[in-house]
Design brief:
Blueprint: H1 10-23, H2 42-51, H3 57-68, H4 78-83, H5 105-118, E1 123-124, E2 136-139, E3 144-152, E4 156-166, E5 170-179, E6 187-195, E7 199-207, H6 221-229, E8 254-258, H7 262-285, H8 293-310, H9 313-321, H10 323-334
Antiparallel strand pairs: 1-3, 2-3, 3-4, 4-5, 5-6, 6-7, 7-8
Bound molecules: biliverdine IX alpha.
């Protein structure tokens, strides 16, 4: 989270900031503690957007927790936030699509219901970076639209969900759940895509925040193994085109490229449900260690930076919604603790989506956009 994320919550953020500044005079850019009152003006708050470096992760975490407990706005429920953009949609933005228009909407709907029924103190968080509202975007001409929801609960520091609908061309459901930072546990990641109604890609994983499983608060791969064993079509291996399978991916990742849509309802949906439930069980059964917060946040931040640098979707979003929106979306919404590469190139790779034939389970498989130039150069 960057200072600009707090702009929506400006009055309280500011009050808290000033109070905090008095205790920790080095907190911001060196503004004198007894700076004139004009530092409270909205003009100054907006200047924070460009002039103040990112808050440190622990300060941000504490700030978020404080803000969470203060009723600033009229709080809206998860269902109200969902309904703001007419979700769950019943038909595609592309009128040409006929059957099963929104292939992955049942994933969204089930997760919403599961969260409502099982998460404690579930609250909506604005999808905003102070400049752009990321909750919805559309390219009417290209017949593509995206909807995003962000929330928090006692169990999860950040929950985000995305549905991308571009008719038969592309359907995506993407979600990440970050455990509360007092829990040194893997992040739950979901990326499920369909291209041209022919090629399907699915990844669901407890994404490690450390190189070794044993460095987490509890081992977890043994919980996933019996689930994965039941689903033969989800035992594939990712390529090395975008990510490194040894970093932030577990041995028990569900991974599949396939061309038979039946697999979605027969295997992927129940497997996804089991992984989500098992993740919540893990979160619930793990003891909180407040002394781990700083460390865990740093690890989640590394995960964000790694993911933002490599996210193949940046090209897709740049093509549909413009390079600037895409870059901000990736760094300020999807992976909001990520550090941007200084002077890095703006996202420009057009998304090709040209699907390869399916490959056998257990073998690394080429990406759908094989041959396209890599988007982001990795940070040094
Ligand atoms: C691959 N994910 C991809 C690709 C796209 C997306 C376009 C490349 C497809 C290809 O050409 O083969 C799409 N990623 C998205 C979208 C969003 C996004 C639309 O973040 C955001 C809304 N990706 C994740 C998460 C995981 C993940 C949380 O965002 C982990 C579960 C995994 N996506 C993942 C992997 C690949 C991938 C591992 C590469 C597969 C491969 O190289 O074989």
């Amino acid at each position: 989270m960057k200072p600009q994320h707090l702009l929506l919550l400006a009055p309280v953020a500011c009050a808290y900031t000033l109070q905090h500044q008095q205790r920790h005079p080095t907190f911001t850019t060196g503004t004198p503690i007894n700076a004139p009152r004009q530092s409270l003006s909205s003009a100054n708050l907006l200047r924070m957007d460009t002039e103040v470096p990112s808050l440190d992760t622990v300060t941000t975490y504490n700030l978020e927790k404080t803000l969470k407990n203060i009723r600033l706005h009229k709080e809206i429920s998860l269902r109200q936030a969902e309904a703001q953009h007419g979700m769950p949609w019943k038909s595609s933005i592309d009128p040409k699509v006929k059957d099963e228009e929104l292939l992955y909407m049942p994933f969204w709907e089930w997760q919403m219901q599961f969260m409502e029924e099982n998460f404690t103190n579930l609250k909506v968080v604005p999808c905003h970076n102070g400049k752009t509202d990321f909750s919805y975007n559309a390219n009417e001409k290209m017949k593509a639209r995206i909807v995003n929801l962000c929330a928090t609960s006692d169990e999860y520091r950040k929950i985000r969900m995305t549905y991308y609908d571009a008719g038969d061309n592309t359907q995506v459901f993407n979600a990440v759940l970050y455990p509360d930072a007092a829990l040194n546990l893997p992040v739950l990641g979901v990326d499920i895509l369909c291209f041209n109604r022919k090629k399907y890609l699915a990844i669901v994983d407890f994404q490690p925040i450390h190189d070794n499983e044993e460095d987490h608060a509890a081992p977890y791969e043994h919980l996933l193994k019996p689930i994965k064993e039941k689903y033969d079509s989800l035992k594939g291996r990712m390529s090395s085109k975008f990510y490194d399978e040894t970093q932030h991916f577990s041995q028990q990742m569900l991974f599949a490229r396939f061309d038979d849509e039946e697999i979605v309802s027969r295997e992927l949906f129940p497997a996804f449900q089991s992984y989500v439930k098992t993740h919540l069980d893990l979160v619930r059964s793990t003891e909180r260690r407040p002394e781990d917060v700083t460390f865990v946040l740093e690890c989640q931040k590394d995960y964000d930076t790694y993911s933002a640098d490599r996210d193949p979707a940046t090209g897709l979003f740049a093509a549909m919604f413009g390079a600037e929106w895409a870059d901000d979306f990736v760094h300020d919404f999807l992976f909001s603790m990520s550090e941007r590469t200084e002077g890095g190139p703006p996202p420009s790779m057009p998304f090709t989506g040209g699907p390869p034939p399916g490959a056998a389970a257990g073998q690394p498989q080429p990406p759908l956009s094989a041959g396209a130039p890599q988007m982001h150069s990795h940070k040094p």
